[in-house]
Design a protein that fits this description.
heterodimer; A: about 525 residues; alpha/beta; Aspartate Aminotransferase, domain 1; seven-stranded mixed beta sheet; three-stranded antiparallel beta sheet; globular; B: alpha/beta; Aspartate Aminotransferase, domain 2; four-stranded antiparallel beta sheet; binds pyridoxal-5'-phosphate; oxidoreductase (chain A); pyridoxal phosphate binding (chain A); PyrdxlP-dep_Trfase_small (chain A); pyridoxal phosphate (chain A)
Chain lengths: ~525, ~450
Amino acid sequence: MSMNNQGRPTRPAEDTGAASAMATSTGNRALMLEEALIFEIGDSNRTGVDLPEAPRAASRLGGLERKSAIGLPGLSEQETVRHYTRLSRQNYAIDLGLFPLGSCTMKHNPRLNEKMARLPGFADIHPLQPIHTVQGALAVIDELGDWLVKLTGMAGVAMSPKAGAHGELCGILAIRSALEARGDKRSVILVPESAHGTNPATAAFVGYQVEDIPAKPDGRVDVDALKARLGPDVAGVMITNPNTCGLFERDLKIISDAVHEAGGFVYCDGANFNAVVGKVRPGDLGVDAMHINLHKTFSTPHGGGGPGSGPVVFSEALAPFAPLPFVERTEDGKLALIEEESMEDHHASSFGRMVAFHGQMGMFTRALTYILSHGADGLLQVAEDAVLNANYVLRSLEDVLDAPFAAAGPCMHEALFSDNGLAEGFSTLDIAKGLIDEGFHPMTVYFPLVVHGAMLVEPTETESKAALDQFIGALRSVALRAKQGDPSLHSAPHFAPRRRLDETLAARKPVLVWTEPVVEQAEAAE
Amino acid sequence: MRYLPLNTQDRSAMLASMGAASIEDLFVDIPEEARLSGPIHGLPMHAPEMAVERHMKALASQNLVAGDVPFFMGAGAYRHHVPASVDHLIQRGEFLTAYTPYQPEIAQGTLQMLFEFQTQVARILGCDVANASMYDGSTACWEAISMARRITKRATALLSSGLHPHYVGVAKTMARFTGDALVHQAPSLTAETDIAGLIGQIDKNTSCVVVQYPDILGRVEDLSALAHAAQAAGALLIAVVTEPVALGALRSPGEMGADIVVGEGQSLGVGLQFGGPYVGLFGCKQKYVRQMPGRLCGETVDAEGKRGFVLTLSTREQHIRREKATSNICTNSGLCALAFSIHMTLLGEKGLRGLAQVNHAMAVTAAERLEKVPGVTLLNESFFNEFTLVLPKDARSIVRALADRKILGGVSLGRLYPDEAELANGLVVAVTETATVEDIEAFATNLEELLA
Ligand SMILES: Cc1ncc(COP(=O)(O)O)c(C=O)c1O
């Protein structure tokens, strides 16, 4: 997901509320504790670890011994635990409540996944161990890859991409390799305006020209306009399905056929696969490559911004170009790792390596654990419940919030609203900040760009009806306040650890690292 | 299905409330001929925790666990002791189950942690600034090369022969598509690095020189002359650090003049995990900050004037800039950055220096012992916790034979450079604080037996 800055206020308004009037001497508020930076509370002579004795040995550092201080504060173990525990309490998280961040699939993260990933047999093995000592690890990669291929109806899979955007890169490189292999120089990738920012960024990163595909008023790709643009210079299209308006691209098969006929390839952004897992296989819709965010559909934790994992499934046409390394089962039933060395014999047209080692193994074990827990039947239920929950939200709120595509039919896994109809001077941001005071993480805001003041709500399948009803009640009340022009919304949130933050100041005078405060002259003189 | 809170009654009530006859009404947009009517054939059905656990444990048991055997592998991934509190803290749900801090008022925990991380990373690398993490060292390395192209408007990068071959591989893959030229050759088995040679190769087309420190063979050499030479020609020096613990003992690349320093942060807090997830470190000089890839956390104030943190300078990023962004990265390695930062806080300067000292002393002890094995020579004159041995025969077979004896005795150069016959006898050995004197002795005696 992303949060666009354009058209969104980035400076806080004057504080009008009196909610925060009562001060305490510490700045703390009961359970809400302020916490200084490690640089302010630690010092470089304190440590929270006891080290083993070093044997006596002469230095062989080649005269490069570090002489100057590094400036790294240390804390005792107790202080460390307290510092990070206090920080953690200033975060909203799925474990606290519904986290309807559209396009991000903030579903419950089962703890069995964490337990399995920490088995020493997975957590404590080196990526370059001899192959016969890591057969179980290769089996995890193989088994997960097999599920992904079968769930998507594709021909092959690349497991090494590190996140969704890295998966996009993998797919685009495969497309370009396939074109080059047939001596076809094409320079343009078509991307809908509603696409996630990573799509155009990826295509441009490897030298493609990016052109917009227009959308129709119903929020889907304009197939005729797309067809009209196809030609010998178009390498491919990047289409998100379900798209970022939360709608299924009904005509994807027609689009794929047209693109193929014009000699191009179809990349599908699979960030929203959760809505359709087990319901439809992208391979049946003519897709050539699609990344799957394991940190979305397959519940590996988002971790405050990663790590993710972005395996890419491929059609017959693109599979031969998939990156190294990958796992292959040999005739004797053992698993082999195909790397640069064995590539000539097995995989001569691979476009090469895009990462050191094998990708996000720690995410593979979690995702496989999750998939085995759900099974084929459970995953189908996941998609159905995710879509049911999103439609329930859509239908429960369309009377108070403008839902631009709701009249035309159901949504998939996320419900999209606009700021149309709010009182003069009230914005999507006010609603988001108002929701914070109500105890919810806001939805994705100002994305996709095709809807004014977009609010993209993705409840996911792991929310109960009661939780949804609570959320709907809260959003309804905030939306009504925004429509009635309640000025206190402008200064929300009032009850979060911080009031609105000054993003303009942060960007104008970037302070990106801590520096020792300079003692003011006057103070020093006192 | 234990992760799904809705029951049949809920589903019916919800469908009824929206006037839908069945769940299929909500999937009408999927063309009928492509819509699946039931669970995909040939795949297992849902399973209880116990059954899943049994299956996963059976797979885990087929791997040889590093911690169970004398262990000497490195080459870009290092085994260090991670204090118990690190893993406890990163499993706090408020860290584990949050996402990118888009709503800063309720994400100050993650944001403050990132600000602390950026400062720690900048200081250890010797840079003015650092970002909030990349995927890993190899992708950070390519991002640095492409950043140097944007800054210098030149497209030829000189890669040191001591750069990790996987990092070279990633750069080669990308360069083929971006049109960058890379100058690179495999290392030779000498005690000196190729710095002198690199200086001679810099010309007016050079965008950057990329050098690893310590390098893939464990060698360390002063980068100052290279930095001067690069900068005098209008090029940048990019230093790559795959073992950050080394910087507790060695001068930082930034101190020696590097313009961009990238690294693999896995050593601290993260663990081996068969190669990922890891955490890419990315630092540079202040003047280049607007060309950096990835997220940056910055300090600001809230409406009441209290200090707080936000993501900033996002006009570099894909979600604002789209095709004009400095990189396509979105999700990074947040939780691994947290683990790195907690481990670094537990260590502090004193602990990091102490840890580096133990590593170096253990490595020197091991090198001196292994050098005595008949037929074995030590390549390095200088090293930190990793060095290269030259064996009298192909090192790959020795590594396999050692593994059969339950010793993970280093990474053979044959595995890393399968096409370079001259390197086949090279063995890269890493020794950290997790090795014991007994481990070293077991390694040495088994090596003796295998070479006899
Ligand atoms: C639609 C869409 N595409 C691509 C991405 C990029 O994925 P990642 O953040 O894993 O790189 C995201 C999410 O962030 C997304 O929502």
